[in-house]
Specification:
It is built from five helices and two strands. The chain is mostly helical. Strands 1-2 form a two-stranded parallel ribbon.
Amino acid sequence: TVLGETVVSSGRVSVHPMPIAYCAQTPWLVDTSVRGNIVDPLNFEPEWYRHVLWMCCLAEDVEALPEKDLTRIGGQGFMLSGGQKQRLVCCCFMSSGVPFANNSILT
C-alpha cells in the first residue's frame, strides 16, 4: 500500500506526498546503451553517474562490457543477466534522486 496498489482493510498507511518510483521484479530496459538507460543525456553528471554505478555494484560489470557504458543492451543488444538488469534499473532510479521501492524488498 506504500504505492497505493492495495486497499487497506483496517488501520491506516501514511506516506509523505512526494514522487516515488517503483522498481518491479521484472526489469524493463530501453533498447539503447547502458548509460542511456540510466541517465538523461541533458543532465549527465559523470561523477554522480560513476558513484551510482558503484553503489549498485555495476561498475565492474560495465567495465567488462565490450563498449563499457556505451554498450547497447536490450532488444538486439548485449544480453545482461537478470541481476545485472535489476541493478541497472535501480541505477536509473538512484541517479534521478527519486526515492524508490523494490518489489523484492516489499514482498
